[in-house]
Amino acid sequence: MKTSARLGRGIGWGVQVAATVAAVSFVMAPNASADITSVDVEGLGDGDAVVGQLYYLTATIDAEDGLGNKPEVTFLNGSKCLGTVTLSSASQQARLAWVPTKAGRASIFAKQGLDKDWVTITVVDAPAGSKPAPQPSNPGCAAGEGSVDTGSAGSS
């Protein structure tokens, strides 16, 4: 009887360790991430963006996360969060309305999980007397968003 009690404890301990390892692996697993294949500014044509005009930022993603979930994509202009949107299954794109508010260079980042891609454009002042488009009401950014590691140590 002593042997079976020891065997039962050993099996119980083994099952408990296996369950703990599985739980920790699940919790510690990184978010599934799809690859961003491109970032575009729709409506730009071959020219520059204009302050006060409406554009659509699009990020094309190569797949869903493999679990049937639709990934969320966060768009940023430099370190300023512009909004977070869910990937459209039909087009494999995330799309966000954007109205530039100042002239200069704009580095538009799309970030999904650990993946990121970007495009840099020039924004010019609107002609005198032009009426700016209203600022879009975009979904907010997730907690902790608002900056992206660009991978460079250059000046801003």
Tell me the β content: 25-35%
N- to C-terminal distance: 74 Å
The outline comes out as elongated
Biggest beta sheet attributes: 5 strands, mixed
Give the tally of β-strands. Answer: 8
How many individual helices? 1
Round the Cα radius of gyration to an integer and report it.
23 Å
Roughly how much helix do the residues carry, as a percent range?
Answer: 10-25%
Overall average pLDDT? 76
Low-confidence stretches: 20-31, 144-156
Q: Briefly note the structural class of the backbone.
A: alpha+beta
- Strand order, largest beta sheet: 2-8-7-4-5
Order of helices and strands: HEEEEEEEE
Quick overview of this protein structure:
With 156 residues, the chain is α+β, with helices and mostly antiparallel strands.
Summarize the structure in words.
It contains one helix and eight strands; from the N terminus they run H-E-E-E-E-E-E-E-E. It has 156 residues and is α+β, with helices and mostly antiparallel strands. A hairpin with a 2-residue loop joins strand 4 and strand 5. The longest helix is centred in the N-terminal third of the chain and has 27 residues, at 2-28. The chain has one helix spanning 2-28; strands at residues 36-42, 49-50, 55-61, 72-77, 80-86, 93-98, 104-112, 115-124. It has a five-stranded mixed sheet, with no helix packed on it. The model is unreliable at 20-31 and 144-156 (pLDDT under 50).
